[in-house]
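Before a colleague's protein record goes any further, I have to sign it off. I want your independent view on whether this chain really folds as the tokens say. The record follows directly below this note.
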Amino acid sequence: MSLKSFLHKLHYDPDHSKPPDFEPDWYNAPLAYKLYRGLPTFALSSEVPLTLEGRPVPDRAEIRDIGHFLWYVYGLAQLSQSVFYMDYGGLEGGANVFHSLRRFAPSGGSLYPSEMYVYLKTDDLPVGIYHYDTAHHRLVLLRLGDFDAYLTRGLGDRCDLSACFGAVFVSTVFWKNFYKYNNFGYRLQGLDAGALIGQLLETAKRFGYHTGVYFRFLDRAVNHLLGLTEQEESVYAVIPLSLQPSGSWFYGSGAEAGVLTSRQLCAALPVVRHEHYVRSLRTTEYPLLLRMNEASLMETTESFGPLDAANIGGTMTGGGETVALPRAQRLSFDLASVVRKRYSPHLDFVFNTVDAHQAAALLHEATASFPYTNDLDTAGHESRKRVSIYGCLYGLEGIPDGAYRYDALAHELRMIRPGDYRMLLQEGITLGNVNLFQTPLCLHVAADRNHYADALGFRGYRIQQMEAGMLVQRLLIAGVALGLNGHPLLSFNPADCDKIYKMEAEGVTSLIQVPLGACRPSSRLEGGLYS
């Protein structure tokens, strides 16, 4: 199968992206977190603050605050136990008990294929590369030393790391969700990484940390720095952390440094390999995921040049009747309180009317909080709007039922089709785990149908999925702040959604579906892992 055909099947025909006889081996499931063995560890403060409001602007990076930051980004936050009763054709079924350790960012199947590594330069710890051990809330030292020069070269000399106290690396471990979802896991991995990055960027704001996201870097050189085996895991994004605004250190042309390859940079550091535990007794091969990863790698800094706005910028224009939304201000809320309340309802949604003011506040907050410093946009220019929000709205006070696109710049809804589309959307949910007749908003994050392939090749696909995940996390946070919860869904029919919104003419497609609404308390046992 060609990789282009593979991506098409992932999006429009996911059931045929995996073998027809595939069944997950539940007894061979890996852990949802990576455990290194035999390496120095540094415990982080477990006295995590339960509010992030009113924090002073830091004048130095302290490991106590960094530990709290890491926990709010990707720490274990909740133990959940759910019981499902199975009915086998009228015969008495048994009860299935599912346990999961949840974090503040959503993940498909609560499998968390991403891992998080940090490069730290603080007075409290030896300077070096660490893995954030989620299970024990601690740092594991992987490589000792100052790697400013190495990482700067790996980023194409576009970052002044001397102005940063560290950097976060977000990786993907392929097996962690391939065992359950097979090849479909590739689509989930990008979205999961994006949700994690979205949570990281929002949390960094509360801690007074300035950030920027590099999607383009010398992959093999960065993986080499962390000691990763590329057949198992690969870094998807590099995010420096600083106490100085990103405009002073993030952007750089790199032209004066000359062309550098991954092979040349890797030769500057010895190979390190560390033992780690995954629990699975065996792993099956995932050749298509490895082919996709190989095709997405950047081998030379020549790949980091300016991007053509026509090939990666937003193209969504849309016409039709407009519905003006009430003026909305940025929401004021305690992020710590909001993310503790967030969860993904299944059949827990109950229909409550949402008015135009709530819808306006939700859409405005999600899009206003989204802009971030990154290496796809050009310094000094307005950020390109690569991902947009569409929605099928029903029963909203002051807004006619219909399918809309949200115009963030004008803060208004552009009607594409009038009517109630809940039945069509419900029929498109293959798992039937959400009742869309109980949700007044069913939103879709959409972007370029070609996945930026002209500008970025196959790397464009995973970047697009990450940006979609980042926007979804903003929608979920804003929703909870307004008393709503959302359930990100990939088990929907994007072809039907594209038709509803007339997307083909605009060259875009639906990437992920997010129904939002009120919900009853979940029927599961939950316990927060915080004091």
Remarks:
- The CA atoms of residues 498 and 509 lie 6 Å apart.
- The chain has 15 helices and 19 strands.
- The first strand starts at residue 35 and ends at 36.
